[in-house]
Design brief:
alpha+beta; 5 strands; 38% helix; binds iron/sulfur cluster
């Protein structure tokens, strides 16, 4: 009888004072990843050409294309990790060289912090483009447009002059 009571006291004390593995907050402990772990996405908006291939091939619809104000590259991918299955197809299909613009970079990420995220934003890989980059790209595109327009005008003037000379000679 006394032995039974002692055993019970021991069990209760252990339950009260010894942390079970399930109670440990593993977010900040070392992560032991499997060899097949590919990690979360890293997106390079500077090299992305906005071809939309990653979005088209994604089997779960985890990719949303963010609209950009540029003419040549007007979209860039963002990933919703809460529906991503980490298959890596988006990386495989990305055509940019020598580096792919979307890669599963192996970086650790926190999707196990209790499972009660009210804010699903925590599960997104967003692309934050600095305003200075946007301004520089827009200026570049405007300069290219003006250059093209001037070249077209010059060509038209030269053609008109050549036509007029032809008329004078005949
Ligand atoms: S890893 Fe797979 S599921 Fe996740 S975004 Fe890329 S293609 Fe979609
Ligand atoms: S496949 Fe690559 S280049 Fe094409 S939109 Fe996606 S990240 Fe950009």
């Amino acid at each position: 009888m006394i032995l039974e009571i002692l055993k019970k006291v021991l069990r209760v004390s252990r339950a009260l004072f010894v942390k079970s593995p399930a109670q440990e907050d593993v977010r900040f402990t070392k992560m032991h990843t499997s060899s097949r772990y590919r990690g979360k996405h890293s997106i390079d908006y500077e090299t992305c050409i906005g071809c939309d291939s990653c979005n088209k091939i994604c089997p779960t619809g985890a990719i949303t294309m963010k609209h950009l104000p540029f003419k040549k590259q007007n979209i860039v991918p963002e990933v919703n990790l809460s529906i991503c299955i980490f298959c890596g197809l988006c990386e495989d299909v990305c055509p940019t060289k020598p580096h792919k613009s979307i890669v599963l970079s192996g970086g650790r990420y926190d999707m196990i912090s209790g499972g009660w995220h009210k804010d699903q934003e925590d599960f997104w890989v967003h692309v934050d483009i600095p305003q200075s980059y946007i301004d520089a790209r827009l200026e570049e595109e405007e300069a290219a447009r003006v250059k093209k327009e001037l070249a077209a005008k010059k060509k038209a003037a030269e053609a008109a002059a050549a036509k007029a000379q032809e008329g004078e000679e005949s």
